[in-house]
Specification:
310 residues, alpha/beta, six-stranded mixed β-sheet, 20% strand, binds zinc ion
Length: 310
């Protein structure tokens, strides 16, 4: 036994180390169009291995500098995004545009600002960020531990007062418009010249979208219709792979419709909530999506509450 321990334990430790190292998530840029890239993060929960980068990001390379869309959940996460951009371009990050106020959308702002980037966000996005900052850091600490060190919340110091907002840099045009779906003040970024939308947390594919206590499925449905009217050829969703409008419609748009037309309508008709949730517990159209088992009932519950008494 002693001999076994003496020889096997170091070997086991080595194996474990190798397994841990392999589990570390390193973001990688994928080309969506000329000069436009997506970084598609893992679908699961925040962890020390993924540094809270369990969401999608993107960037646009222009002759005047790079525009990064969303900045990660921590200083180390932001650094990883920076490295993923470095693999594609030497252009410095000029702008960081925030599509939302969930932790992984903006807590890397400070890292890029300290390297000379300007933080760009709509005023309501920045206000929600400021309101949630401390709570988000506390929540992240449980997942990231010491890897959250030196992460400082920095909402855009000079947020944009008017929405939608049209911005130009190095010949690229970005339109930033509110969606207000996942968090109040959330936004999407439209690149009209490319027919590309970075949807922020409005669109989820491959996994079921999450309705949080502050989310609005009513706004989500409206915003999804506004997105569809833009007729994008490619969508970089908030979570899941880069997709087309048809997939976004099937996996997000149709689900917002369901939440509003079935669950919301039943709430307005004052039907008993439990019966409504039971009735729609099995939805074949969405059951294949990741997180369905964990989120579907809670999503319906929150949609019901949003429409109650309306
Ligand atoms: Zn998210």
């Amino acid at each position: 036994m002693t001999r076994l321990r003496r020889y096997c334990l170091p070997f086991l430790a080595l194996l474990l180390c190798a397994a841990t190292a392999r589990a570390e998530y390193l973001p990688k840029a994928e080309k969506v169009a000329d000069n436009v890239y997506a970084i598609v993060g893992p679908l699961g929960q925040r962890s020390a291995e993924n540094d809270g980068l369990n969401a999608n990001y993107g960037f646009v390379v222009t002759p005047a500098g790079t525009i990064l869309i969303d900045s990660g959940a921590s200083r180390l996460g932001a650094k990883k995004l920076d490295q993923a951009m470095r693999a594609v371009t030497d252009q410095p990050v000029r702008w960081v545009v925030n599509t939302g106020s969930q932790d992984h959308r903006w807590l890397g702002n400070d890292y890029f600002a300290s390297r000379g980037a300007e933080i760009v966000a709509l005023r309501r996005t920045a206000a929600t960020q400021a309101a949630h900052a401390q709570q988000q850091l506390a929540g992240l600490a449980r997942f990231l531990g010491p890897r959250l060190a030196d992460t400082r919340p920095l909402p855009a110091p000079k947020p944009l007062a008017a929405a939608p907002a049209t911005l130009e840099l190095g010949g690229e045009t970005l339109v930033l418009m509110h969606t207000d779906a996942h968090y109040p003040g959330d936004a999407l970024v439209h690149l009209p010249r490319h027919g590309i939308v970075f949807s922020g947390d409005l669109v989820y594919v491959d996994r079921l979208l999450g309705v949080l206590p502050g989310s609005s499925v009513k706004h989500g449905r409206q915003a999804f219709r506004a997105l569809a009217a833009l007729k994008p050829t490619r969508i970089v969703p908030g979570h899941g792979h880069v997709c087309d409008l048809a997939q976004a419609q099937r996996e997000t748009g149709d689900y917002y419709d369901f939440l509003v037309d079935k669950v919301g309508a039943a709430a307005q008709d004052m039907e008993p909530m439990d019966a409504v949730l039971d009735q729609h517990a099995e939805l074949p159209a969405f059951r294949h999506l990741e997180n369905y088992k964990d989120l579907h009932r809670a999503n319906m519950n929150r949609a019901f509450t949003e429409f109650e008494g309306q």
